[in-house]
């Protein structure tokens, strides 16, 4: 069998074509959203919301309304409960997130166990991308399209909110509304992805692509291109692997994403572990030989400033070549994308 047959043979089956279409749509929108989630530091919140939507999805199935309705309601409910617990007690945010998402996830499991169904609601937990029907594909396409357009239209506001919500408020934007928009898109995107990999693994599609792209670039504009590319590559590879090795499609998609992240973590030119170790070894060798470090080499723990701009532009915060203020996000993107601070502020 030649390599071309490895690609063409699975495409003879209609269910494989539908699975690939659904996976690509979910991979693109999840990867785009993951850039903001990683930037804002909402990885744990993404995990919480993706699990907390489970009872909403089951209740939507019971009453016969689109899954997205229940998912958004319970996603917002989870956020409200987390904020209430954090704001009215001595419980910290990470503990509040753990309490709320596990409780709502358990409620979803109970509802699944007591709900008589002609369909296997267990597929919500672990995904069933090879069983995507035409109507499922339409729903995934519509929800992914809504999330994609919303992210595209509000990208500047959301980027400004991620970098500096105080400045966003000063120029007339509402950080509260932008945060709510991001959470709403998170709930919608979770519904898109849970058909592919299930509720248990959906957080991987919402976090891993953005985290991988974050290790490859300091420019947010480039990150928005790299993350979907990586996600689509991993997802398509996972689908084909699942056909040939007869294993879980969702599990293989996430495994491939994890493998790509590991490669980037080790080999990324600027922030990879191995290049930084080699740079440090060369510096020590020159020091032992009585030679000083060359002025054109990066200093400070092997983490040079991004984009070749001076570290002072970070305003003394230790940022990786931030553009100085999110208010210049539009101008920075015009030059090739907003630069990403090492520790984005909420």
From TrEMBL:
Q: Give the location in the cell.
A: Cell membrane; Membrane
InterPro entries to which the protein is assigned, alphabetical: ABC_BtuC-like (IPR037294), ABC_TroCD (IPR001626)
Instruction: Tell me yes or no: is Cell inner membrane among this UniProt entry's keywords.
Output: no
Keywords on record:
Membrane, Transmembrane, Transmembrane helix, Transport
Comp. bias regions, Gly residues: 299-321
Q: Which domain of life is it from?
A: Bacteria
Q: Where is the segment annotated Disordered? A: 284-346
Question: What family is this?
Answer: Belongs to the ABC-3 integral membrane protein family.
What is the protein's name according to its record? Metal ABC transporter permease
| Source species of the chain | Brachybacterium vulturis
Identify the taxonomic lineage of the organism of origin.
Answer: Bacteria, Bacillati, Actinomycetota, Actinomycetes, Micrococcales
């Amino acid at each position: 069998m030649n390599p071309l047959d490895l690609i063409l043979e699975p495409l003879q089956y209609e269910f494989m074509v539908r699975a690939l279409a659904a996976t690509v749509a979910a991979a693109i929108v999840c990867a785009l959203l993951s850039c903001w989630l990683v930037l804002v530091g909402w990885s744990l919140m993404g995990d919480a919301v993706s699990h907390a939507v489970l009872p909403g999805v089951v209740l939507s199935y019971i009453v016969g309304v689109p899954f997205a309705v229940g998912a958004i309601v319970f996603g917002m409910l989870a956020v409200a409960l987390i904020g209430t617990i954090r704001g009215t007690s001595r419980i910290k945010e990470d503990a509040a997130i753990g309490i709320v998402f596990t409780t709502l996830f358990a409620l979803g499991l109970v509802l699944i166990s007591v709900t008589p169904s002609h369909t296997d609601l267990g597929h919500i937990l672990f995904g069933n991308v090879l069983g995507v029907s035409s109507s499922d594909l339409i729903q995934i396409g519509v929800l992914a399209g809504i999330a994609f357009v919303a992210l595209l239209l509000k990208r500047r506001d959301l980027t400004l909110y991620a970098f500096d919500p105080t400045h966003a408020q000063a120029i007339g934007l509402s950080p509260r509304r932008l945060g709510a928009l991001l959470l709403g898109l998170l709930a919608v995107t979770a519904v898109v992805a849970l058909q592919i990999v299930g509720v248990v693994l959906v957080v991987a599609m919402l976090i891993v692509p953005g985290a991988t792209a974050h290790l490859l670039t300091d420019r947010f504009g480039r990150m928005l291109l790299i993350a979907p590319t990586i996600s689509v590559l991993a997802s398509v590879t996972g689908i084909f692997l699942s056909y040939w090795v007869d294993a879980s499609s969702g599990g293989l998609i996430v495994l491939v994403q994890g493998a790509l992240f590991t490669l980037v973590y080790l080999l990324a030119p600027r922030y990879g572990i191995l290049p930084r170790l080699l740079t440090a070894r060369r510096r020590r060798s020159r020091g032992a030989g009585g030679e000083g470090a060359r002025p054109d080499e990066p200093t400070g723990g092997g983490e040079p400033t991004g984009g070749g701009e001076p570290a002072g532009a970070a305003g003394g915060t230790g940022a990786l070549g931030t553009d100085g203020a999110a208010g210049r996000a539009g101008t920075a993107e015009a030059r090739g994308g907003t630069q990403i601070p090492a520790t984005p502020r909420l």
